[in-house]
């Protein structure tokens, strides 16, 4: 494998094409961007190396995103749960966020991203944290607790079909699949 | 690297396995044939029973088979039918070992799969594999005794069918793998497994009659899929301006970018229209038609020759530009031209009708696609949830835009909460109502004022025309176009100011704004058309109404004039050779189609100029002013008035739509219009991209206009319909000019069709066509279509109701639980 060190082997490339929603150029571009995150010595093995979370978050596409931490943790397959990503995790992430991904897979991963405590449901705490992420970091822009309660109350009224006080995956997908903006906003393109 | 895989760690094993199955896959088929030299059947039996066990056993087994595989080299002499024989020839030692090796692979993998503990699909597959294993075990046990050399044991039909089913399921799995929310490693291993299975047993299915054909079919399917994938890649690489739009998306969000995506889509449509008009109308006439100067209609009249090459004349699209393939009047009415016998009038007619048809088709198709994406929203009661879950735009990569987005999300949350709480308060509702009525009244006044202004200006221009245009300067000649463009520029701003009285929610305010601008442009356009019709009638008032007599008179005049050249009496049946008269001197008949075409072209060009100047002055100069004069000005220019401009999405989109309407209206009379429009859209794209990045700031209220996508499409469709009405009306009801154009000499333009049917098609075709266009057949057809629309509407309503019922049922069931 010495000669084509800077490229992905061809059969692997075609398998990635088969398994993701990305086209060949997108995969090659992803490889290029991914290997740029690595220090020079490790660029040869970009396919098997893990990039630490702090490096991933320097990507301009993720830099301004309030859910950057969650995205890294959801797509990372690292055993030590440090949010580091390998190239295949990176491809997974780009595939889900690509333009041609189905709404089903996008909503599945959106649910996992919003589930801050990883317990499989969106309860009050998750929703509160979600609102705080969306309103930005400044103190002046946060909602007061009365407003927060009212907001979460309204949301649960709308989306919680079985009235158990939490939103599970099915309810989430039901709500989000009816939104016309979801697929076009849940998109990251390199 | 053979020693690597003795390791036990599952992660490493996974990676190694995937790497090796790469090589293994390539050697899979040869390897199945290779193992014959080693005696392993008893060991194989044990393996079969043991393969439910752990990975550790799978590890060494695989290790051994890898070693063997690599050592033995490639013996690919046999065809793909080997696995077929291998499966059935149980007695044959060679086949047993082959099977065992495959069992190893599958067994090992299924063991691994169990360890991963994920996915129901896995257990399904395992179940199927166990079935296959069991089948093979049975076969082995039954066949182990015999030593026969029988070639093929017959596979029963049902086994064949089951096998086929499994192969199809595997193929479907491969096709839908990317939809599964699994990690890449798992997907890779599942894919490899499934591919191996398919490859192995696809050969098995093709036995007996037509096995060669089956293998060929399989290979062609694979090649076809590869071709499709490559073509998709090629297509995405061909999309122009992708990087530019992506940059804009990350700075300004998806709503501003949606304008540019719309622009690019329009560019595509115009390219196709350009291809049609250029390739099928302009080029054949230029190459095969009579050249310039051979016919009166193709030559600049003597009177105008002096100024024909001036830049001013050319800019005005008269002179040489008028007497060229760019306009309707140049084309000759010969039925066929050139050695190819190209039917020019037919082609002109069909291209005109075809452009309209194509535009309708593509706009409707895009609307349908957008409607599908919208998910047929019957439930709009998820306001808060949508704000929560879908309001963040993941394309934003710029911190400044992100801050704006945070602010707007916060505001919209607060607003929504307040709205929800105060929806019952009736504070100042009378004042609000009064203000809204006042605003609407003002808007109506503006519309009426602009309509009257256009009418007045057009009347004035008719007066100028009567008195001869040479007496007036540039302003008088271009008054109509300039006034229309200026109105289009200033009235929307006026509407914006008026709407601040109304105090609506921004999305509703945007709808009102769009509606008013739409009414403005529509009014302008139709006033313009009425004015044009007036002008045509005005010119016609000089000559008698277009009747045959009038034609005869003009023709008679021409003959007399010709005769005067003979210095003799009027020749009734002239046998003398026609004197060569310079076509520039022949008196001409009127040509209203070219005139209409010219008007449209002039309007398009002036519109283009206005847009560019607006961008340069309104955006660029303003930005320069704000930036550099900020130091020496009393108040902060950047935050107060005038500050940097925001990109006006709705105004630009509407401008684009109306310009396209102009093109559709005029392209029948001026085949050069699509070409001009392609040029204009091309330069527009670059200029506006630059202007947006350089002079505009992200909008303060960053809200999504995506639901407006179908709104814009609906407007486009409406404009398309309205623009094609005049063209269709003229084709059907007005006789074409007798002295210019491809339809001269006919009483109606569409007669070219019947002429073609007569001459170029066999006679029975004409008869069939005649029957088909019988009103007795067409009316029932229209009735049928109306009935089917009614039926489909009723069905869709009933589906919606069923949907609601189901939802209620779902809720009540969940509540019970």
UniProtKB/TrEMBL annotation, chain B:
It is found in: Membrane. The chain crosses the membrane at residues 265-287, 308-331, 346-363, 434-458, 514-533, 711-732, 768-792. GO terms for cellular component: plasma membrane. The lineage of its organism: Eukaryota, Metazoa, Chordata, Craniata, Vertebrata. Pfam families: TMC (PF07810). Residues 26-41, 58-70, 124-142 have a biased composition (Basic residues). This is Transmembrane channel-like protein. Keywords: Membrane, Transmembrane, Transmembrane helix. Residues 16-25, 113-123 have a biased composition (Basic and acidic residues). Residues 591-706 form the TMC domain. Its main location: membrane. InterPro entries: TMC (IPR038900), TMC_dom (IPR012496). Residues 148-158 have a biased composition (Acidic residues). It is a multi-pass membrane protein. It comes from Molothrus ater (Brown-headed cowbird). The gene is Tmc1. Residues 1-158 are annotated as: Disordered. It comes from the Eukaryota. One of its GO terms (biological process) is vestibular reflex. GO terms for molecular function: mechanosensitive monoatomic ion channel activity; voltage-gated calcium channel activity. Belongs to the TMC family.
């Amino acid at each position: 494998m010495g000669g084509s060190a800077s490229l992905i082997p061809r059969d692997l490339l075609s398998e990635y094409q088969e398994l993701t929603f990305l086209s060949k150029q997108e995969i090659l571009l992803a490889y290029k961007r991914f290997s740029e995150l690595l220090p020079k010595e490790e660029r040869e093995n970009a396919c098997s190396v893990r990039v630490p979370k702090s490096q991933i978050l320097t990507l301009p596409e993720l830099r301004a995103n309030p859910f950057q931490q969650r995205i890294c943790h959801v797509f990372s397959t690292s055993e030590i749960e440090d949010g580091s990503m390998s190239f295949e995790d990176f491809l997974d992430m780009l595939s889900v966020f690509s333009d041609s991904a189905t709404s089903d897979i996008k909503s599945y991963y959106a649910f996992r991203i919003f589930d801050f405590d990883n317990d499989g449901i969106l309860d009050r705490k998750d929703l509160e944290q979600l609102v705080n992420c969306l309103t930005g970091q400044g103190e002046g822009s946060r909602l007061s607790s009365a407003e927060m309660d009212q907001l979460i109350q309204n949301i649960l009224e709308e989306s919680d079909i079985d009235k158990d006080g939490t939103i599970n995956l099915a309810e989430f997908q039901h709500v989000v699949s009816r939104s016309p903006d979801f697929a076009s906003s849940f998109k990251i393109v390199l | 690297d053979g020693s690597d895989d003795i390791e036990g760690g599952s992660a490493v094993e996974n990676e190694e396995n995937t790497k090796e199955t790469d090589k293994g896959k390539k050697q899979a088929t040869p390897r199945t044939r290779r193992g014959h030299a080693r005696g392993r059947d008893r060991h194989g039996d044990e393996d079969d029973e043991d393969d439910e066990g752990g990975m550790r056993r799978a590890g060494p087994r695989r290790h051994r088979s890898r070693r063997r595989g690599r050592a033995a080299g490639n013996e690919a002499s046999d065809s793909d039918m080997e696995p077929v024989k291998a499966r059935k020839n149980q007695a044959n030692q060679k086949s047993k070992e082959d099977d065992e090796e495959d069992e190893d692979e599958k067994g090992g993998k299924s063991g691994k799969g169990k360890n991963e503990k994920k996915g129901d699909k896995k257990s399904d597959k395992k179940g199927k594999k166990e079935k296959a294993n069991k089948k093979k075990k049975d076969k082995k046990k039954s066949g182990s005794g015999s030593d026969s050399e029988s070639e093929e044991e017959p596979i029963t039909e049902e086994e064949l069918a089951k096998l086929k089913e499994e192969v199809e399921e595997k193929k479907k799995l491969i096709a839908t793998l990317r939809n599964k929310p699994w990690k890449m490693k798992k997907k890779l291993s599942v894919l490899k497994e499934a591919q191996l299975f398919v490859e192995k047993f696809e050969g098995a299915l093709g036995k007996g009659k037509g096995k060669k054909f089956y293998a060929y079919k399989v290979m062609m399917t694979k090649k076809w899929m590869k071709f499709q994938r490559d073509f998709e890649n090629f297509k995405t690489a061909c999309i122009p301006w992708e990087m530019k739009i992506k940059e804009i998306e990350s700075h300004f969000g998806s709503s501003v970018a949606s304008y540019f995506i719309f622009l690019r889509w329009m560019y595509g449509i115009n390219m196709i229209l350009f291809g049609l008009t250029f390739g099928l109308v302009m080029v054949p006439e230029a190459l095969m038609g009579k050249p310039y100067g051979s016919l009166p209609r193709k030559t600049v009249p003597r009177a105008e020759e002096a100024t024909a090459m001036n830049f001013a004349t050319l800019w005005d699209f008269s002179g040489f530009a008028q007497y060229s393939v760019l306009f309707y009047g140049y084309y000759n009415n010969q039925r066929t031209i050139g050695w190819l016998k190209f039917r020019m009038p037919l082609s002109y007619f069909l291209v005109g009708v075809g452009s309209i048809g194509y535009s309708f088709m593509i706009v409707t198709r895009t609307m349908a696609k957008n409607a599908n994406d919208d998910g047929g929203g019957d439930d709009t009661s998820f306001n808060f949830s949508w704000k929560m879950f879908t309001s963040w735009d993941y394309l934003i990569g710029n911190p400044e835009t992100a801050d704006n987005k945070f602010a707007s999300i916060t505001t919209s949350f607060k607003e929504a909460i307040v709205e929800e709480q105060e929806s019952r308060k009736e504070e100042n509702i009378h004042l609000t109502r009064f203000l809204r009525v006042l605003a609407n009244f003002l808007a109506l006044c503006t519309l009426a004022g602009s309509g009257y202004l256009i009418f007045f200006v057009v009347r004035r221009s008719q007066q100028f025309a009567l008195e001869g245009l040479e007496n007036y300067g540039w302003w008088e000649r271009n008054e109509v176009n300039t006034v229309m463009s200026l109105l289009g520029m200033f009235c929307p701003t006026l509407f914006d100011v008026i709407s601040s009285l109304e105090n609506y929610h921004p999305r509703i305010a945007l709808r009102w704004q769009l509606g008013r601008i739409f009414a403005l442009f529509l009014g302008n356009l139709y006033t313009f058309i009425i004015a044009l019709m007036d002008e045509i009638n005005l010119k016609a008032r000089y000559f008698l109404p277009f009747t045959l007599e009038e034609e005869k008179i003009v023709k008679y005049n021409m003959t007399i004039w010709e005769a005067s050249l003979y210095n003799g009496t009027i020749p009734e049946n002239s046998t003398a050779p026609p004197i060569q008269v310079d076509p520039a001197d022949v008196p001409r008949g009127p040509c209203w189609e070219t005139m209409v075409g010219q008007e449209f072209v002039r309007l398009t060009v002036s519109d283009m100029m206005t847009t560019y100047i607006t961008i340069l002055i309104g955006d660029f100069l303003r930005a320069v002013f704000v930036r550099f004069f900020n130091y020496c000005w009393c108040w902060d220019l950047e935050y107060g008035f005038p500050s940097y401009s925001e990109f006006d999405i709705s105004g630009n989109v509407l401008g684009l739509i109306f310009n396209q309407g102009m093109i559709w209206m005029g392209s029948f009379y001026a085949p050069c219009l699509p070409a001009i429009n392609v040029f204009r859209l091309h330069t527009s794209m670059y200029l506006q991209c630059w202007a947006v990045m350089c002079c505009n700031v992200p909008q303060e209220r960053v809200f999504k206009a995506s639901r407006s996508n179908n709104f814009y499409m609906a407007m486009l469709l409406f404009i398309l319909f309205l623009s094609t009405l005049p063209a269709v009306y003229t084709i059907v009801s007005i006789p074409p000019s007798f002295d210019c154009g491809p339809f001269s000499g006919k009483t109606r333009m569409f007669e070219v069709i019947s002429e073609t049917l007569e001459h170029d098609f066999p006679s029975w075709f004409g008869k069939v066509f005649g029957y088909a266009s019988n009103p007795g057949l067409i009316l029932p057809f229209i009735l049928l279509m109306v009935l089917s629309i009614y039926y489909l509407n009723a069905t869709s309503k009933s589906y919606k109701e069923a949907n609601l019922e189901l939802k209620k049922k779902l809720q009540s069931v969940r509540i019970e639980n």
